[in-house]
Amino acid sequence: MKIGVIGLGNMGSAIALRLHDQGFNVYVWNRTKSKADQIARGRKIVVEETIKKLIEDTEAAIVMVSDDKAFREIFYAPQGILESIKEEYIVVNSSTTTPMLSIELWEKLRSRKAYLIEAPVLGGPNAARKGELVILVGGPKRIALKLNEVFKALGEQVYVSERIGDAMVVKLAFNALLISNLQLLSEILGLVESWDIDTNILKQVLDKTIFKPLIDKYYTRLLSEEYPVSFKLMLAAKDLEYARRTAEEKYQPTPIISTAATTYRIASLYGFGGEDYSRISLFLRRRRKWPMPKESTQ
Q: Are 160 and 138 in contact, with CB atoms under 8 Å apart?
């Protein structure tokens, strides 16, 4: 299958490389072309000059961009996705967006006799490179089945629903649960430290409870002064805000998610936005001198 990948951040790049390694014909486009050239170097990955050309050369494209705004920009732009789309083409939304955006895009694509499939993923770049993602698939099953081999190469599939929007709701629910829990774990580490208690004592206690998997995965990461970026804190803030908006769309209160969204947004303003989302621990535990906040550009 000739598959396109639009957006070559950490996740998009990892997905493109994994599909290439699994024998797919991969075509890529990125707003900054040098990033596309970099991952294609020495590999049989085709770097396209435009989205229009990528769509001409492929049967489906996985879109992995940062947010609703970035997706709309490439979707509605001259020679963007909508203007370039052809009948029966499949646009795969693997970005973490609002479900409302997916529904909007689905309606626009169906008016051109093309399709949207939702396929947000659980797992980071390392999981993508190893084919160990969990892919939440949503949309018409007969269309999703055409992508079965692509999804199998990337990891394990969970088919959520025929209804567009549902897979993205589940992804936001998962992210909100994980990201909010990192904030809570950071707070309790700070609480214990503030009383000069060794955090290893807390770890010993949590190891004997249902929280053991969480503490095993994140204890060292949260206490580390430095950690390589796997998932930017500013994107965690965005996902929490999207979860809040998605709940609000159905008049569902989300007080904990809303509070976490505010905390992560403030941490971003204080300069943590480009760092790994586990740095919320440094922010809450005041383990680093805070710079003055900058005006939000979001």
A: yes
Tokens read off for 129: 């490179």
Query: 47-71 burial by CB neighbour count: b if 16+ within 10 A, else e?
Result: bbeebbbbbeebbbbbbbbbbbebb
Q: Tell the CATH topology of 169-284.
A: N-(1-d-carboxylethyl)-l-norvaline Dehydrogenase; domain 2 (1.10.1040)
Question: 287 near 281, Cβ under 8 Å?
Answer: yes
Q: E strands, the chain, where? A: 2-6, 25-29, 45-47, 60-63, 90-93, 115-118, 121-122, 133-138, 155-161
**Rounded mean pLDDT for each run of 10 residues along the chain, 298 residues in total:** 96 98 98 95 97 98 98 97 98 98 98 98 96 98 98 98 98 98 97 96 97 95 94 97 98 98 96 96 84 58
**Domain 2-163: what homologous superfamily?**
NAD(P)-binding Rossmann-like Domain (3.40.50.720)
Nearest to 117 by CA among 92, 82, 151: 92
| Residues ≥6 apart with Cβ < 8 Å to 236 | 175, 179, 264, 277, 280
